[in-house]
Amino acid sequence: MTIGAVFDILICIQRGDEVSTKEKLIELFEANRGVYFSGEDIAQKLSMSRTAIWKAVKTLQNEGYAIDALTNKGYCLSEQTDILSEQGIQKYLRSEIAGIEISVLPTTSSTNALVREKANAGVPEGYMILANEQTVGRGRVGRSFFSPKDTGVYMSLLLRPKNYSAEQAVRITTMAAVAICEAIEAISDEKAEIKWVNDIFVRGKKVCGILTEGSFSLESGLFEYAVLGIGINMYQPENGFPKELESIAGSVFQTHQNDAKNRLVSEFLNRLYVYYTAPCQSDYVEQYRSRSFVIGKQVTLMSANEPKNAVVLGIDDSCHLLVQYNDGTEGCYSSGEISIRF
What we know:
Elements: H1 3-31, H2 39-46, H3 50-62, E1 67-70, E2 74-77, H4 86-90, E3 102-105, H5 111-120, E4 128-131, E5 152-159, H6 170-187, E6 192-195, E7 199-202, E8 205-216, E9 223-233, H7 260-276, H8 285-291, E10 298-302, E11 308-315, E12 321-325, E13 330-333, E14 337-340
Parallel strand pairs: 3-4
Antiparallel strand pairs: 1-2, 4-5, 5-9, 6-7, 7-8, 8-9, 10-11, 10-14, 11-12, 12-13
């Protein structure tokens, strides 16, 4: 082995130690927001040197963590911090799902693309990737999804549903829509509504989009796995939304909130898994209906063929739209997109 190879291995070991130290510190701070710990206290609790602690604190501060460092008091994670972390999410999760594998990245191309790679490699259900920024965020029908740094939550969850056909794929999207609405309402004073089938609105503006992708078995026609991708605008971007989005895009919050990102993700997961694992998975449908703001509205159905105008009569137990066309005939719209006519 060359000297250079040995040096590379030592560097990797050192980086691994730094990551371990940082993660241990985040876990300690997240469990004790607003509490000061002296360097000596932390060194004893985590069995590490005060130098390693100082380096890890500096790294976390550079990453955006609001950690106060005061002489004679020590270190403290401010209660005002709102930054995504695995430890910050895990502390709010129900015991039934605590411990699922969560990876939080500062930036990535697309969380959906990364989770698909993991799914194809055989990673089990429940694996999740979140990012503070996406450079190639994806929406429905090949569109891009605006995913700026620091203002949103961009996440993808791997599911391996049993005996789900292509026609049943809408269940995953609609379950997620209800769970996101409930999560938003749990951490804010806002009412969240659903525009069929996958858009979440707050104060009349879109704050969240959902993209479910999957792989099917050619033999059975059933899901091998599904990747549930969700992008949420938590805050307004510093320079506002792009011109093409500014009339329709909004944010959950208008001012900074304490630990809102971690709380929202955990509230979403807690609620989603209740619906996803329920013996009767249609239990969420009434919640979906009650939050839909398209029932009774004039819409244009953007089908693969030519667009058709219709009135939405309701939503059936499979979350398909029940519509009446202009000629008086009625039908069921199961896939595609709609636009509301004003």
